Amino acid sequence: MEKQAPPSPLASAPPLDILILAAGLGTRMRSATAKVLHRLGGRPLIAHVCRSATALLKEARPIYIIVGHQAEEVGAAARAELGEEGAVFVTQAEQRGTGDAVMCAREALEGANSTLLVISGDVPFVRAETLGALVQQHRTHRGHGAACTLLSVKLDDPTGYGRVIRDAEGRFERIVEQKDATPEERQTGEINAGIYCFETRLLFDALERVRPENAQGEFYLTDVPGILRADGEDVSIYLHADAREVSGINTRVELAEFERVLRLRTLRSLMLNSGVTVIDPQHTYVSPDAQIGSDTVLHPNTHIEGRTVIGEGCEIHSGTRITDSRVGNGVTVKDNCVIVESEVADGCTVGPFAHLRMNARMEEHSAVGNFVEMKKSRLGSKSKAMHLTYLGDAEVGERTNIGAGTITCNYDGKAKHPTFIENDVKIGSDTMLVAPVRVGARSVTGAGSVVTEDVPPDTLVAGVPAKVKKKLLHEETQAVSPENKNAEEVTTAVTGGE
Predict the structure, then answer these.
(1) Cα separation values, 11 from 14, 199, 441, Å
(2) Does 278 share its domain with 388?
(3) Is residue 250 situated within a structural domain?
């Protein structure tokens, strides 16, 4: 009879729960803002950790988060990544150490027959693959799994970190914090990274026996592996090769260094994998959440932020900032433009010194130029606004030209009002369009006009306030007559340039 292999420890493995520690102030940041709310690559530190944790879970289970300082703000940052139902928050009223923080989750987790992954909210580079390897080793240690597995790394300079002390056979013995270590123990280069796996059913009993007998007078989670070992339980060490990946951020200097590393990683990936030209990587800033198409060129000192999407064959010139926006294919954005939460369709030209905001939309092959601002407005296909113009709460049709100095006067002191400019319109220089107002198709406003009433289609208006001066015929049907033979000359005189 063929002998059957013993069942894999993973076949009957308990479910995985994840606990993120995010209650601390982070005093070394010298900030009134909780450490996990400081931003890296445009997102809070805790958002990076939540993303890796979510990728690790194979089933729909909430992630448990210990909050304390600025709990409401930390919770909002976590929910933005995990969703409203993706997190359970537990409050640590007083910051009395990592052991006390985990103990706060006892009521929520003690009855769970699970494996618990404990991770700090300030390790933004940690990957789901690394956490998965830690869990795998924990569950397969010595064929039956461990009570606790801790993640360690080796540093050339371990100053400030808790040391992992091994016995003569290389097995875990204890963790000793820097302030409590002997001079000999401080020579150990292997440090505790602060990421653990526990069997939940054993964890809280061990936490009950943790005492604040240390230089800080705190309840250390690092005491738990030693307590479990003394109980005869197996404690495993997962030695990881990349110290930076599992490092926490404790100071603004470290935050800046992580930002530099993340930025260069992002740019390298864009150049190697996406076919993007980055002329000067040292002075180009791209969010890791942004997407940029092939053959797009980024000039020095460009900032691409948030979840911006830029198409293929674009050219983004120096001094430009694009945030949470969509840019189509073949777009040229000239120097010193700001585009925020807006959309630029294929073949458009923007700037220099243009500002698009609040869901501004440029349709295909439209153009805005020097010192033009669009706010909550749409510029139709092949339309232009080239100089010193404000379009606010406006709908502009196709093939329309907005003359220099035009302003949509959208605010009456109490409310905002819309302006509608239809197809093939010519708005003369320095026209004021006092909303709510509509300019009909193929109409013309004279330079310096103040338009306070709707303009019918095919009409020339001018003056302050603007009055109808002439009815214009569509050029395809214009007849040669004394009434209209000079219409083109009159139109040119009153509109001014682009």
Answers:
(1) 9, 16, 71
(2) yes
(3) no
